[in-house]
């Protein structure tokens, strides 16, 4: 009987709380409707200006004024973004809400990236794509329905976004990115540009333009023909492996623009599981795909796609961008293709070196699992003096043959927070110098190493 009474009390309390929340929300929405009627009038005026050629691509002066206000002061907005605010803190979330992000390419990857940027409270989005929603794209598009088939992807997103987070200023442009539209699309000092284009010529041109203009950009590589979500990574373009699109983009950027790296990309370390399907014309016979291109250079052959993979690509891109906008420090997992034997070799090399140099192995305080952490997480599989990812894939395997772990501070034990990865010659030179000499002669190197080792100390709770 007592238990039953407790249950009834809990149910009643829950119902009461739910009713209070509902009433509060209804009151807020009622006030919002009145405000929205005023805003809609401003939008109407702005749209008239735009249609008559006096507006600025959908960004009227009055609308800019509205978006310039602090979105988080709105009760509904702050409640909708409450989990983000709890995660980042109010000021960091305010940075997100004051940001302007450009997303170019609104297919399986770009639609999910844009959708989560919107849900994360980004205050201004420019969505660019020349293509339309097709029936076959519904397996991977973020918001499109059958009713949206045939309408431009950009307008489809804007329509759905207006019911998710209407406070966001969304400019949807049914437009192809190329040299003639570069200045228009990349103007307005965007805080981030997301490249979700699957055409090599356009992708290379966009990335080169962003580098030239000093804009932060994140590029998506091939998401089709893959199935393993655990292999998706963010790294420098130079480190993306097993991806034909990345390889072509790297080659073109270096050849045409002299750009060799410095661009973060989302890619899959998984080799493509299936190949491009042969193109068949209306008669069912295999034909030349280029004969059916609407725009020169754009593929018409079909890439088999498991819809969840491009969606995850887009979510990864949004997470990366939002944390960057918020100033939230995230250490992305490094691309290190080593196996257990490589770590065993480095561990054994450390033990032998300790015994040779100090006459004992009693000060070695790491096992193979610790070595994996030090080599992979702290030094990304390469010398602490080499910050550029020159060796990737099998090249990294070979580079292990000339690497070893040594103490940073020779007066302290060989622990997780006191080991650096160096080439043999670098290790000899390091052990011939004092830390004071390194600090005086190479202050930047000294600060970088001590910062990394401090992170190890914190993560291992030492």
Helix proportion: 40-55%
The rounded Rg comes to 27 Å
- What number of domains? 3
Order of adjacent strands in the largest pleated sheet: 3-2-1-4-5-7-6
- SS field, number of helical segments: 17
Biggest sheet: strands, sense, closure? 7 strands, mixed
CATH class of the largest domain: Alpha Beta
The share of residues in extended strands comes to 5-15%
Fold-level CATH name of the largest domain = Rossmann fold
**What is the residue-averaged pLDDT?**
83
N-C termini distance:
53 Å
The low-confidence runs, each spanning 5 or more residues with pLDDT under 50, are 37-68, 289-295
> What is the CATH-assigned architecture of the largest domain?
3-Layer(aba) Sandwich
Shape: elongated
Total beta strands: 9
Summary keywords:
Rossmann fold, seven-stranded mixed β-sheet, 9 strands, 48% helix, 462 residues, alpha/beta, 17 helices, 3 domains
Question: Could you describe the 3D structure shown?
Answer:
Keywords: ATP-binding, Ligase, Membrane, Mitochondrion, Mitochondrion outer membrane, Nucleotide-binding, Transmembrane, Transmembrane helix. Belongs to the HesA/MoeB/ThiF family. By secondary structure, the chain is an alpha/beta fold. The protein has three domains: 34-67, no CATH class; 74-272 and 287-326, NAD(P)-binding Rossmann-like Domain (Rossmann fold); 340-459, no CATH class. Helices cover 48% and strands 9% of the residues. It contains 17 helices and nine strands. The chain has helices at residues 2-51, 61-67, 75-80, 82-88, 90-97, 108-119, 153-164, 182-185, 200-213, 244-257, 308-326, 340-358, 368-378, 394-399, 424-431, 435-441, 443-459, and strands at residues 100-104, 124-128, 169-173, 192-195, 217-220, 232-236, 264-268, 403-407, 419-423. The strands form two sheets. Strands 3-2-1-4-5-7-6 form a seven-stranded mixed beta sheet, with helices on both faces. The protein is elongated, with a radius of gyration of 27 Å. The two termini are 53 Å apart. Residues 37-68 and 289-295 have low confidence and may be disordered.
């Amino acid at each position: 009987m007592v238990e039953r009474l407790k249950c009834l009390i809990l149910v009643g309390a829950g119902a009461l709380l739910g009713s209070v929340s509902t009433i509060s929300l209804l009151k807020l929405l009622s006030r919002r409707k009145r405000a929205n009627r005023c805003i809609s009038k401003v939008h109407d005026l702005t749209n008239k200006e735009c249609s008559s050629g006096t507006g600025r691509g959908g960004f009227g002066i009055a609308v800019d004024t509205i978006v310039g206000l602090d979105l988080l002061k709105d009760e509904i907005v702050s409640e909708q973004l409450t989990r983000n605010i709890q995660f980042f803190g109010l000021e960091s979330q305010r940075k997100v809400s004051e940001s302007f992000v450009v997303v170019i390419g609104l297919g399986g990857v770009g639609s999910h990236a844009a959708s989560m940027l919107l849900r994360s409270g980004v205050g201004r989005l420019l969505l660019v794509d020349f293509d339309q929603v097709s029936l076959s794209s519904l397996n991977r598009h973020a918001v499109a329905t059958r009713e949206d088939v045939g309408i431009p992807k950009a307008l489809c997103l804007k329509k759905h976004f207006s019911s998710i987070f209407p406070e966001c200023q969304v400019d949807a442009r049914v437009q192809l990115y190329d040299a003639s539209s570069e200045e228009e699309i990349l103007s307005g000092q965007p805080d981030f540009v997301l490249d979700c284009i699957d055409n090599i010529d356009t992708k290379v041109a966009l990335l080169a333009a962003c580098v030239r203009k000093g804009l932060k950009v994140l590029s998506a590589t091939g998401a089709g023909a893959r199935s393993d979500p655990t292999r998706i990574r963010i790294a420098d373009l130079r480190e993306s492996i097993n991806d034909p699109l990345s390889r072509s983009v790297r080659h073109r950027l270096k050849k045409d623009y002299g750009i060799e790296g410095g661009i973060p990309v989302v890619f899959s370390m998984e080799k493509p599981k299936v190949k491009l399907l042969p193109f068949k014309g209306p008669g069912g016979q295999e034909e030349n795909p280029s004969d059916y291109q609407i725009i020169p250079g754009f593929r018409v052959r079909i890439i088999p796609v498991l819809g969840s993979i491009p969606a995850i690509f887009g979510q990864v891109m949004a997470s990366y961008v939002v944390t960057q906008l918020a100033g939230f420090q995230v250490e992305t997992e490094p691309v290190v293709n080593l196996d257990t034997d490589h770590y065993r070799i480095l561990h054994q090399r450390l033990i032998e070196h300790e015994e040779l140099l100090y006459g004992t192995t009693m000060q070695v305080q790491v096992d193979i699992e610790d070595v994996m952490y030090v080599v992979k997480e702290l030094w990304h599989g390469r010398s602490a003096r080499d910050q550029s990812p020159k060796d990737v894939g099998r090249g990294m395997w070979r580079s292990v043959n000339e690497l070893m772990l040594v103490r940073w501070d020779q007066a302290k034990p060989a622990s997780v927070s006191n080991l650096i990865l160096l080439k043999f010659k670098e290790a000899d030179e390091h052990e011939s110098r004092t830390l004071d000499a390194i600090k005086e002669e190479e202050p930047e190197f000294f600060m970088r190493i001590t910062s990394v080792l401090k992170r190890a100390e914190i993560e291992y709770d030492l």
